[in-house]
Amino acid sequence: MTETFSIIIFLSTLFIFLGSGVWIGASLLLTAIVGMFLFTSAPIGDAMAITVWSGQSSWTLTALPLFIWMGEILFRTRLSETLFRGLSPFMGKMPGGLLHVNIGASAIFAAISGSSAATVATVGKMAIPELRKRKYPEKMIIGTLSGAGTLGLLIPPSISMIIYGVTVNESIAQLFMASMIPGLALAACFMTYVITWALISRNKFDEGPIGSFKDIFFSVMDLAPVLMLIMFVIGSIYTGIATATEAAALGVIGSIMLALFQKSMTVESFKESALGAVRTSCMIMFILMGSSFLSLAMGFTGIPKALAVTIVGWELSPYALILILTIFYIILGMFLDGISSIVLTMAVIEPLVRAAGFDMLWFGVYLMIVVEMAQITPPIGFNLFVLQGMTGKDIGYIARASMPMFFVMCAFVIILVAIPELATWLPKALK
Question: In whole angstroms, what is the distance from residue 277 CA to residue 169 CA?
Fold first, then answer.
């Protein structure tokens, strides 16, 4: 059978399972089993056992459930209220007013949770009622939340970045360093868009009083515990004091202490955070199991090699390759979540990227941004679903409100390609 026929069988089977509502991890496993049965004579059970175990037994992956638990604990505290109250005096008087608090709070919470959906949900709970009360345009409220919420995939500690690092065997600490400056720069780009919109529209809003020096001082005090936790976790990795896994454990302890300090930790909320972390971690691990076995099954058919040979035969320049990959991941992201997109494709994409001479740290940052775009593109954009539940608006309205932020991210990809040092400078400087 030709590789083309094999690709048709694999894709058809996968989309039949996904379209039938089968879990993503189960769909990947079942597709791999079908492929192994049709195209190879290898023992399916033995191959699955070896592949799944080797893919799940990485020590680096232990950081994943710990960072997720850290985010779950803080998700159940008064963190969003603290962030909004602490940032408002500093950002309320900028053109665009309190819309910048959406972006600033999302950037800070992203540095704690590592999850895009958790960032949108947590910041949105506080920001949406407050901004509606002050008569901000609904589209700008939704657009800034959906766009800035994607920073959870980029600003460290990022769950998706950990998955990428394990998949391509790159240092998690180096990847976190590479994504720090681009994450802050992308947040600045979102703010620039809001400022531009505000200056053009000339809308005026009730940002509230700036307050006295005493009010500003207490705002800083509101932010201090959160910022200290971020600096503690990320700094321990960058300075080499702790590995990513150890830093994640310290983050869990710090988040529990912060929750106790805020007097928002109860036995019930602790149980909910633990169960939430288990559910999310199991979902991600199941996807990783399915994708690793599917990669093996596709390897037996020669599909990755055939695709690589085909793309090499096109003799694309590095820039043309990046353009093709950007379009590819945007389309793929319309049907799969970010983690699935990463683990499902890297077995094929990684050799092409290395052969083209791209720095894998830089490519990791690039990949996070294009996967971020998938979070706000229909029909399967996770941030859109979260905002639909919070605002009551239909998906089409939310997608249209998010489009400006999508184009901001497209522009930032161009900036990242033109200035790769945004991602490569810090890892080299701190090496």
Answer: 25
Which 3 state secondary structure label does DSSP give 295? helix
Q: Decide if pLDDT at 213 tops 60.
A: no
Residues 6 or more apart whose CB falls under 8 angstroms from that of 380 comprise: 333, 334, 335, 336, 337
* In the block, residue with structure tokens 């900036």: 415
Q: What's the pTM value of the predicted model, to 2 decimals?
A: 0.75
Query: 351-389: per-residue pLDDT in tens?
Result: 888 888 889 999 999 999 988 887 787 766 667 777 777
The number of domains in the chain is 1
Radius of gyration of the chain, Cα coordinates, nearest whole angstrom: 22
- Domain enclosing residue 363, as ranges: 3-429
385, exposed or middle or buried, with CB in 10 Å at 0-12, 13-18, 19+? middle
For residues 343 and 291, is the Cβ–Cβ distance under 8 A?
yes
Query: Which tokens go with 202?
Result: 């000339």
Assess contact for 383 and 146: CB atoms under 8 A. yes
Determine the Cα–Cα distance for residues 99 and 406; give it in Å rounded to an integer.
17
Q: Helices (DSSP H) in 302-394: which residue ranges?
A: 303-313, 318-333, 338-355, 360-374, 382-391
Count other Cβ atoms within 10 Å, centred on residue 389. Answer: 11
Amino acid letter at 12?
A: S
The residue among 201, 62, 117, 39 whose CA lies nearest residue 386 is 117
CB 287 within 8 A of CB 106: no
Contact 224, 106 (CB under 8 A): no
Whose tokens are 């454990």? That residue is 249
Q: What pLDDT digit, counting tens, does each position of 283-328 carry?
A: 767 777 776 777 677 767 666 566 656 766 777 788 888 998 888 8
Length in residues, the chain: 431
